């Protein structure tokens, strides 16, 4: 087979000759980007929702919330919002993977001489590119509401690296959920679960203000590790704690994403290979 046309592709030349992980992954990444260009509505809505969240918490709720140890709530908030937008990306990944399954695109790909890993790698690369765009938009939104990074250039770049590392791990969570969950109702369920994951953390308030057992769960939330670490790197107001998790947030901000990738990347690959069995 020298060429094939897939639903939702911009070009009929999707697959050429022998399967190649690199070449096929690039082609399928381009397919996702072309689909976003033709149908940008969901992505624009996602970016708009994130900006509304910044404005809502920064101006509507921020006056009633106190920063542990003092300081600007908006500077306390923005590291949490940077990480929270990575969490919101789970549903976008799940929706894209589930839609390809429902439309038969995944079955078509599996019947073609395509590298068996390329569809998942292409999906992950495309979603990471959108994560970079999302982070850039959130950076502008943060600067507009008064947030500033007070650390050095190296610390600031390290903080953004930790944010994208979290997103990379959550991409594979979203891919796996998209492969195992069917229909729009399942995707709506994923969107519903994003909020407990995000709010049961230190993104918006200190876990010290929560009941003891709930605060302990929030401290061990992978999102909390990333938020705590990047607040320190940005030089933004934060909060202290005596638990092991809080004292080791910079380490756990690396460990948690690695653990998630180690779990969900193989699960996604295995599920993809077994779809037709």
Would you spell out the secondary-structure blueprint of this structure?
Layout: H1 21-38, H2 41-61, H3 73-103, H4 105-110, H5 118-144, H6 153-180, H7 183-199, H8 212-220, H9 222-234, H10 244-247, H11 249-273
Helix pairs in contact: 1-5, 2-3, 2-5, 3-5, 3-6, 3-7, 3-9, 5-6, 6-9, 6-11, 9-11
Q: Can you summarize this structure?
A:
The protein is mainly alpha-helical. 72% of the residues lie in helices and 0% in strands.
Q: Would you kindly provide a written description of the structure presented here, covering whatever features stand out?
A:
It is built from eleven helices and no strands. With 277 residues, it is an all-alpha fold. Helix 2 packs parallel to helix 5, helix 6 (153-180) packs antiparallel against helix 9 and helix 6 packs parallel to helix 11 (249-273).
Core attributes:
single chain, 277 residues, mainly alpha, 72% helix, elongated
On the 0 to 100 scale, the average pLDDT is 86
- Parts with pLDDT < 50 across at least 5 consecutive residues: 1-16
Give me the number of helical elements.
Answer: 11
Q: Which shape, going by the Cα principal axes?
A: elongated
């Amino acid at each position: 087979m020298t060429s094939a046309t897939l639903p939702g592709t911009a070009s009929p030349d999707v697959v050429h000759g022998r399967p190649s992980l690199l070449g096929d992954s690039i082609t399928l990444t381009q397919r996702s980007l072309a689909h976003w260009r033709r149908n940008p509505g969901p992505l624009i809505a996602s970016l708009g929702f994130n900006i509304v969240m910044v404005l809502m918490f920064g101006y509507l709720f921020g006056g009633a919330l106190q920063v542990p140890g003092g300081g600007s709530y908006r500077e306390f908030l923005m590291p949490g919002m940077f990480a929270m937008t990575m969490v919101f990306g789970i549903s976008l990944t799940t929706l894209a993977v589930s839609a390809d399954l429902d439309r038969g695109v995944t079955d078509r790909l599996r019947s073609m001489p395509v590298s068996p890993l390329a569809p998942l790698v292409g999906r992950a690369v495309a979603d990471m590119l959108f994560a970079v765009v999302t982070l850039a938009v959130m950076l502008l939104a943060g600067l507009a509401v008064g947030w500033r990074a007070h650390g050095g250039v190296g610390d600031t770049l390290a903080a953004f690296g930790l944010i994208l590392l979290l997103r990379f791990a959550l991409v594979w969570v979203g891919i796996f959920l998209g492969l195992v969950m069917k229909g729009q109702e399942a995707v709506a369920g994923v969107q519903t679960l994003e909020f407990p994951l995000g709010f049961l953390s230190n993104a918006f308030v200190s876990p010290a203000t929560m009941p003891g057992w709930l605060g302990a769960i929030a401290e061990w939330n992978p999102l909390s590790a990333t938020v705590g670490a990047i607040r320190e790197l940005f030089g933004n107001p934060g909060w202290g704690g005596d638990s092991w998790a809080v004292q080791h947030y910079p380490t756990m901000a690396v460990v948690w994403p690695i653990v998630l990738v180690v779990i969900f990347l193989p699960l996604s690959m295995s599920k993809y290979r077994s779809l037709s069995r």
